[in-house]
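pipeline: protein-struct stage 2 | run 1193 | Galectin
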Amino acid sequence: MSPGENLDPIPDCFILQPPDFHPVIPYVTTIFGGLHAGKMVMLQGVVPLRAHRFQVDFQCGCSLYPQPDIAIHFNPRFHTTKPHVMCNTLHSGRWQREARWPGMALQRGASFLILFLFRNEEVKVSVNGRHFLHYRYRLPLSRVDTLGIFGDILVKAVGFLNISPFVEGSREYPTGYSWWASGHRRIPLGLQSLTCCSERHNPKASPVWKDNGKRVPPSP
């Protein structure tokens, strides 16, 4: 399943709030109703050829000062000798223990579809239909009400979905999508044709941990 594949439209009841098309980066938006288990955020875009890094932050507020806590900081880094994805949590201005995934599912110059699936105790992330990582919550998911996207990334569409038809507790989770028509534009926001992908398909889904006590905000 590729990021540009046409599939079937989905019922409107799965769409939790209007999608955003081609948002300007940096991008910050309110998540209607906040986050809870059973919600899903889908991000479609392209990694620029000269990208160094970008980040997707699920924040507890949107203030500039004091900086809000960041429950989930998803940070692909392409400019290092060993490209990797880093996840972390910012609490009271201090970064917590850093988790790194050495495998890079994203590529410079390539399109992507990232799916964030929020479960009871962790978020699961798939890239282009394949499970990539899971990250356990360190702050209550109920505190998250803002999505922020920063750095070297071209975003085509952001969607917010409800996945209630899928059974909580299963090791498998939806990683596909389909195309939902909105006027003359289309966005990958489908659920009818979702496929399932097991964590065992990706042996690199377990992180490498690194302690980090820096009191600095995330770099864009």
